[in-house]
Amino acid sequence: MERLAGDMDFRKALSENVEAPRAVTERFGIEVDPMEMLPLWRGSHLKYRFKPESAPWPLAMMWDEYMREMLRHRDLLRDQGGMSMINPRFHAWRERQIRRCNDELGRSAPAVTHPIIAFELSEGCSVGCSFCGLSADRFKGYYEYSKDHTELWRGVVGAASEMFGSAARTGFCYWATDPMDNPDYDRFLFDYYQITGALPQTTTAAPLKDEALTRRVLELFDMHGTTTNRFSVLSTRHLNEIHRAFSPEELMGVELILQGKEAPIAKALTGRARERKEKLRVANKDDAVALLERDHTTIACVSGFLVNMRQGRLQLVTPVPGSDRWPLGYRILGQHSFRTPGEFRKGVQIMINQYMLDSPAADLPICFRRDLQYQAGDRYFHLRSRNREHRVLDDVAPISVGDLIARGNCTASELVMQVATDGMSVLAIADLLDQLYAAGLIEEDLDDTSPDKLATG
Ligand code: SF4
Question: Nearest CA to 119 among 356, 352, 308, 345?
């Protein structure tokens, strides 16, 4: 499947030799019998012209089962981030972000598992992918595994583990960075495992940069891993080199993400891919733009905290579709700096108190999310998003609560005062607002502060 998705020559050779595919696979060093894989090829969007057979295709069935298991695992990872007992406020906020994302992220939504924390162990990235959805800066250095750094690292991970419980196991150690830029990466990983009980998943576009380090990471996965690692493959040549350097057995716990030009994989419209789209548009290259205009809105996945250890920076983030305001595909709600585990803990708590509200803020304008289309009905209303339609009963007051929210020119407390007729209706209206809020239908991004000017606490 890797060869099929990542190598144009292989695909071409197969389509020219539909009656004798084995000769092609052998030429490309693939030992399995292609006839056992027929359903995959016919089922794939690569459209091969093989005739159906009645054989059981055991390899194809194994592959299907493997893929089904990966999808089940993805859902388990999302559930692992639950914190209803240990941190109910963070839990409710994350659940709300999940519902909003399911509504507005298009086909990116099912793949987002909403880990609650991610750490950067370098500053910038040395790989410099042209499609980087996070527009990673050029590499400026890595966080060394010195005595002081180790103490801070273990203290910060320990604080996260205490505050978030088992949800801290969803954490991972890269973002707009490549793990292999840090030669001590495996030591940080092992600390994380010892403190939280889970080995963070690794994604790297530079598995060949330091093969000994990559092998140490794969060995850690063999001993303690639960979540499949990923190598981003940047070209067919890169695919060949990876296949040469690592055996099939070594790659059993690694998913190869074919990102090269020859791979039919859509890039999210964020970061450098978004900048490229603008250039193509200016150059009137509509065909090329159309290829990018797919429903893939972001590669960001964290609904929680993003921590850069080298800069001592802590941000609260959540995925959003790439836009002029949030071109990297995630919204930054606030940020703090820290030098000690105590300051880290304090910064986290301040942001939980400030941004993770249980109800819509009483003194701020209340309106529906900007991407939703409002349609009034008789004692109900509809809200249409990119992915779905909501029908909401609107019968708690003599006038429509939906209409007032859609107008967006009053605060939550003013709205309640306008429509309530007695104490009972105050409660009913507040309850309706809470339900809309919990469903992620109320706009939360009300602050128009430029992301570059976010205050740092
Ligand atoms: S996609 Fe990953 S590896 Fe490539 S430049 Fe961005 S952060 Fe670095």
Answer: 308
Q: Which atom of ligand 1 is nearest to the CA of 131?
A: 1
Residue 110: burial class (beta carbons within 10 Å; 0-12, 13-18, 19+)? middle
pLDDT tens-place string over residues 155-210: 999 999 999 999 999 999 999 999 999 999 999 999 999 999 999 999 999 999 99
Among 120, 125, 265, 298, name the best residue to mutate to test ligand 1's pocket (greatest count of ligand atoms within 8 A of Cβ). 125
Give the tokens for residue 365. 């304008």
Rounded to the nearest angstrom, the distance between the alpha carbon of 231 and the centre of ligand 1 is 11
Q: Within a 10 A sphere around the Cβ of 456, how many other Cβ atoms?
A: 11
Does residue 203 contact residue 174 with C-beta atoms inside 8 Å?
A: yes
What is the β-pairing status of strands 229-233 and 122-123? unpaired
Ligand 1 atom 6 nearest Cα: 132
Q: For atom 4 of ligand 1, which residue has the closest CA?
A: 129
- Whole-model pTM: value is 0.90
**Distance of alpha carbon 36 from alpha carbon 170, whole angstroms:** 37
Q: How far is the CA of 136 from the centre of ligand 1 (A)?
A: 6
* HSE-up of residue 285 (Cα within 13 Å, Cβ side): 10
Best residue for ligand 1 mutational test, from 122, 123, 127, 231 (most atoms within 8 Å of Cβ): 127
**Spatial distance between the Cα atoms of 381 and 272, rounded to a whole number of angstroms:** 39
The CA distance from 46 to 424, in Å, is 60
Tell me phi and psi for residue 254, to 5 degrees: -125, 130
**Domains along the chain with CATH numbers:** 2-64 (no CATH), 88-197+266-355 (no CATH), 358-457 (3.90.930.60)
What's the 126 CA to ligand 1 centre distance in angstroms?
Answer: 8
* pLDDT 10s digits, 446-455: 876 555 656 5
Q: Which of 121, 126, 132, 172 to mutate to test the pocket of ligand 1 (most atoms within 8 A of CB)?
A: 132
CA 446 remoteness from chain centre: 23
Q: Is the dihedral of CA 149, 154, 158, 161 positive or negative?
A: positive
